[in-house]
Amino acid sequence: MEAAGSTKSGAVDGIFGRPYIDLEPYLDLSMLPELHEEICLGLTRVPVDYTGGSHRTLEIVPASRQDLAYADYGEVLRGLSPTELRLFESLAEGTERPSPTADPGLLYGEERELLLSRRQMLWLKFRHGVYFPWKVYFEFIPNRYWGDKQLTEGKDFTRVARSVFPKTVAFVKQLPFTTIGRCNLMGLEANDHGTVHRDGARAHGSPDHFITLCPAGNKTLFLWDEIAQQKSPVTSRAYWFNDNDYHGVEAAPFFRYSLRVDGQFQPDFLARLEPGRG
Q1: Mean pLDDT, to the nearest integer, of 140-167?
Q2: Is 52 exposed, middle or buried (0-12, 13-18, 19+ CB in 10 A)?
Q3: Domains of the chain, with CATH numbers?
Q4: Tell me: the pLDDT tens digits for 164-210?
Q5: Is 239 helix (H, G, I), strand (E, B) or coil?
Q6: Is residue 155 within 8 Å of residue 214, measured between CB atoms?
Q7: Residue among 50, 47, 38 nearest 216 (CA)
């Protein structure tokens, strides 16, 4: 996710004059029940990660939805004592060592130089109350930075993804993309919510191409209009929205997940989505 740094108003821009595009009429989703069974079983067999937790530090949260009751790990890291910071650093994986003069709030985590290890995330959660909204995160096609999601060179579905989720991988491959650069699963635990944020902040330009799939149909994403202070719920099992718009996920008393696939749409598929042409 890219930091904001833009004058974008905060109103919902949407796509082709609509808040979002319901893709159910354009895709064959008959396989979704089978994919749901495969995914739910497969998640018991793979290591899952956390994501989110530093949206305020990334400056992608609207002014009215700062969620100040939730600890942001970038802010927490900046407040650690030297002793606590050394303890945190001792929980890292690998041999990379941070610069002694670097701002720890801008050094670790998403879109940063050093990724958080699983132990670091758990310590931040247990000791400092950091809220990681998505506690089930699995990359079918890994990406290091948000801006890499449209790139395809040297990328492929991981061996684990192909082995554990073969039907899901086959389904994704037949979606109407000319290229696919990113594919991941994001899940919310019961009673957790997805904090309101935007993935980019471009005031102009075409939205990035992607498809979000919710096989169970129970993940209530909403678009947030910062000007009108209103939510627009997204209820489809397959949809495309402008991720430069603010969005979040409602809390619910059960686990929910979605699969997001980024790439470049086939031209004929994109033409079908445009008003007056589809």
Answers
A1: 91
A2: buried
A3: 20-51+133-273 (2.60.120.10), 71-128 (no CATH)
A4: 999 999 999 999 999 999 999 999 999 999 999 999 766 556 899 99
A5: strand
A6: no
A7: 38
